[in-house]
Amino acid sequence: xxxxxxxxxxxxxxxxxxxxxxxxxxxxxxxxxxxxxxxxxxxxxxxxxxxxxxxxxxxxxxxxxxxxxxxxxxxxxxxxxxxxxxxxxxxxxxxxxxxxxxxxxxxxxxxxxxxxxxxxxxxxxxxxxxxxxxxxxxxxxxxxxxxxxxxxxxxxxxxxxxxxxxxxxxxxxxxxxxx
Length: 179
What we know:
It comes from Pseudomonas syringae pv. pisi str. 1704B. This protein is an alpha/beta fold.
């Protein structure tokens, strides 16, 4: 289920085997978090491209899949973005669980061992969405700064004024061209 207007905070769930996707979706729905179930990696990528707060991925969904498009998508994230990923795994650390090594490839990963408790899943999603909101706030601040810089440059040009830059390390003061 996808909730219009909440694409930027929804969870995209990829757990093609068993009932993990239905269970996770129902738990999130009951907790008030929108979610969408993807059935394969290409669908996951399409949904992530449309907007997401986080991805919940079962490790077996990636084990034999071509991860190149997913890694490329994650690699193309803007500087403010670091998509949270919850990786559903089975018991065992890096020595006993090959999916633990996937975390390094995927980036911002939290591991959740199955069977998971609903409260644990909701807590992870709540934390991921809160972090994602901070990322969106950082994006907005960066956009504001860029717009402010553009307005300042326009004002400087209109007033035929230059700008000064002080390099404190070298005690060097430079002035832009006045046009």
